[in-house]
Amino acid sequence: MSYGDPNNPYGAPQGQQPQQPGYGYPQDQGQAPGYGYPQAPPVSPYGGPAAPTTMPGSVSAARVMMWVIVGLQVVAVVILGIGAAAINAAKDDATVQDNPALQDLVGDSTGLIWGYVVFGLAWLVFAAVLATKFKNGGNGARITILVFAIITAVLGIYPFVIVGLVHTVLAILVAVFVGNANGKAWFNRPRY
């Protein structure tokens, strides 16, 4: 089919040349994109929707919050360690030796504060290990992160009410973001 054929019923009218596209018009007048059947999402080899290839935003936010929890744990362990060392040094001070009530308070609290330091250090290491598992951890890592976040939220409420409020909020958000559908899809994705 050419426009030059005078017997072509689909050609340009006689005596007129076909118009050239002007400024602002696309040169190729092909089929419009998106016309026809909608594009299907990729399918996994197991028949369901394809697993995410990049970490969803909510899971990435949960990972950042876990690192913030690690940072807060570092600050808390340092402060508690300095406090325990100061109380231990005050126990040997001559001015405190004369006051038996203060001596009992200092003597009993040193061991408790050192216990908090050891527990905080262990919790810090556990949080750091879990924060590194976001990239390649499986469903077991997801469940462990959920349990960690729930226990952290509870511990932030009870013994450390004022200081633990930030821990509680962050831990609740981590649990929500890891426990939602995006978190489940990310941690259950196939690894080849």
Explain how this protein is built.
The chain is mostly helical. The chain has a domain at 57-187. The chain contains 6 helices and no strands. The chain has helices at 57-91, 94-97, 100-132, 139-157, 165-179, 181-187. Helix 1 (57-91) packs antiparallel against helix 3 (100-132), helix 1 (57-91) packs antiparallel against helix 5 (165-179) and helix 4 (139-157) packs antiparallel against helix 5. The longest helix has 35 residues, at 57-91. The radius of gyration is 33 Å and the shape is rod-shaped.
Major sheet: size, sense and barrel closure?
none
Structural class: mainly alpha
Spell out the helices and strands N to C: HHHHHH
Q: What is the overall shape?
A: rod-shaped
**Number of helical segments with 4 or more residues:** 6
Radius of gyration: 33 Å
Number of strands: 0
Rounded to the nearest angstrom, the distance between the terminal CA atoms is 52 Å
Overall average pLDDT: 79
pLDDT below 50 for ≥5 consecutive residues: which ranges? none
* Strand portion: under 5%
Helix content: 55-70%
Label this structure with key terms.
6 helices, mainly alpha, single chain, 192 residues, rod-shaped
Briefly, what is this?
This protein has helices spanning 57-91, 94-97, 100-132, 139-157, 165-179, 181-187. By secondary structure, the protein is mainly alpha-helical.
Topology of this protein?
Elements: H1 57-91, H2 94-97, H3 100-132, H4 139-157, H5 165-179, H6 181-187
Helix pairs in contact: 1-3, 1-5, 4-5
